[in-house]
Amino acid sequence: MKAKWISGILSMMLLLGIAAPASADETRQIEDESIYDVLVDRYFNKQLANDFEVNATDPSAFNGGDFAGLSSEILHINDMGFTVLSIGSVFASATYDGKEVIDYSQFERHFGTEEDFVDLLETVHENEMKLMIDIPTQQLSSQHFWLKDNPEWFIENEDGTYALDTANPDVQDALIEVVSGFIQQYEIDGLRLQETEKLDTGFINRFSEEIKSVRDIYLIGDAEMEPVEGLDAVVLPGVEETLRNSYKNFDQDTSGLPELMENAEGKLIQADSLRGSRITSDIVEAQGFPPTRMRLLFTQLLTMPGIPVVQYGSEIAMNGKSLPESHQLLNMAVEKELIDHIKNLNSLRNSSEALRTGELEVIHEEDGWLIYKRSNDEETWIIAINNSSSTRNFTISADEIGSDKQLQGLFENDIVRQEENGDYKITLDREIAETFHVIDERGFNKAYIAALIVLYVVFMIFLWVVWKKGRQRRADEAAKTANEKQGEN
């Protein structure tokens, strides 16, 4: 019911010109995107033909997910409103997560054929999304075919895998050649360098220049680090720890959130990553209730500055303390409430430039009671998150949002109107988040009333036409009856 109501609100906003969604033909920038992060092997098994020694009961083995499975269930991702699908590494690998690459020139056979990959790419584009893949370089297989001919390119890791020395010019040449050939052949939209913090910065810069000279695609990192020349975005330092500690239970210390948000513009923001544990494990350890915790977390993640990255399974509060436990098969038969909440938030974000790239102002933060504003010249939003164990309220002055306004709540169906003293008082129950759209009260009412008047006039005209036709029909029937009687006489 709430999902339909939110959709109705969005439709009305668009009708009145309050929010303008980005056109499907409009070129999006990285700041406009929201990324859904999956592992091909753990999403959905569609084809049995590529199930080579698959064991779905062993978390460390290939479980059977494939390109065809992603294609067949793409609507799940699209319906949630994500604009970029990141599918990890697709190259021939010794491991299900694609990190232990054997051959960059071959697709992993468990994932499917080249034709299956092309079909997935086309399906993603048909659904007006972008496709991103990972480039692993630091945990390659001991069977990697470069190792035999060029052992000096590699550094052996303690676990028996091998890392490419990305400071080596020959390694740079080889990687640039193979990846350039890949993006020339397949119209993918982005690359993510794995374990970016271990890579030579000179390599990153050169790699970026060479790749983007082939085609201007996204190039991002997967590590929390300071911005690096050549990368379009990196993960905001401290973002996972701050968000996890703030939302693992109620009455947490949220004092780190304002600074986090103020530094998030243009950065990747996430509470999980496919490199380690899930936030659900933190919530369970803190004896929190995952559905409520995740609802509050997603409200912040999808309305604060930054580029949200959401890992597969977060929409069902997937658990896992460490790898491979945190890489479970996605259960598609789940309760949809949290999924609908993500869908609604992404719908707002996709429709509102202010929520994607607008200015941020933290209005209030104290003891889990957080209020902030996102705005640009066209629109203003107030996001209120009560992550405490009691009902909270806060008064916003007219100087903050203007006079003769109203705050239209989109999730709890609240409307906050200006009080006699000119202030606006927001009240939220415990563990509740609300997204308020600041609108002109009189302007909105006039439009609403005008619509009602038009509807009323049309309805009255309809009734008059029906009445007139009915009257004419009765007159015609009476005349016909009279004529028939006259003929009988």
TrEMBL record:
Xref: SMART domains? Aamy
Which GO MF terms does the UniProt record name?
hydrolase activity
Taxonomic superkingdom: Bacteria
Co-factor requirement? Ca(2+)
Which keywords are on file for this protein? Hydrolase, Membrane, Metal-binding, Signal, Transmembrane, Transmembrane helix
**Taking every annotated instance into account, which residue ranges of this chain make up the domain Glycosyl hydrolase family 13 catalytic?**
37-349
Tell me where the transmembrane regions lie.
Answer: 447-467
Protein's UniProt keywords contain Transmembrane: yes
Listed PANTHER family: ALPHA-AMYLASE 1, ALPHA-AMYLASE FAMILY MEMBER
Q: What is this protein called?
A: Alpha-amylase family glycosyl hydrolase
Q: What is the lineage of its organism?
A: Bacteria, Bacillati, Bacillota, Bacilli, Bacillales
